[in-house]
Design a protein that fits this description.
Blueprint: E1 3-12, H1 16-26, E2 31-37, E3 42-48, E4 54-60, H2 66-74, E5 77-85, H3 88-97, E6 102-103, E7 109-112, E8 121-125
Parallel strand pairs: 1-4, 5-8
Antiparallel strand pairs: 1-5, 2-3, 3-4, 6-7, 7-8
Protein name: VOC domain-containing protein
GO molecular function: metal ion binding; methylmalonyl-CoA epimerase activity
Keywords: Metal-binding
């Protein structure tokens, strides 16, 4: 089991347009694309980083989505750090043995619950 790299960060915001303006206009990043996921109940904006990886800004389309609930409870800010691993199953087993609480095992990506990581949701996946 090994973490092999950083993939991306996800920042939750109340308003996607304000989030885009912050990262584009104040921080000087270039907006790559926007999207919306009905399944997750979010609007998304993606900013590629020059040395690899990207920053994803998300805003809820519904207050009862996972991002909507996180905003309600924790406000705007860091939502997810996505990491690459060499072997997802082995990494999950090792993390569970270490006491981590996992979400979504068996899928192409697995999340480590924020209660296991001092308030940050970790996303684990193997780079395709």
């Amino acid at each position: 089991m090994a973490l092999t790299g950083f993939d991306h960060l996800v920042v939750r915001v109340n308003d996607i347009d304000e989030g885009i303006a912050t990262y584009r206009d104040r921080l000087g990043l270039t907006l790559d694309r926007t999207a919306e996921s009905e399944a997750l109940g979010i609007k998304q904006a993606f900013f590629n980083m020059p040395n690899g990886g990207f920053i994803e800004i998300v805003a809820p389309t519904s207050a009862d989505s996972a991002v909507g609930k996180a905003l309600e409870g924790r406000g705007e800010g860091m939502h997810t750090i996505a990491l690459e691993v060499d072997d997802l199953d082995a990494t999950c087993e090792a993390m569970k043995e270490g006491g981590a609480r996992l979400i979504g095992e068996g899928g192409p990506q697995v999340f480590v619950h924020p209660k296991s990581t001092h308030g940050i949701l970790l996303q684990l996946s193997v780079r395709q």
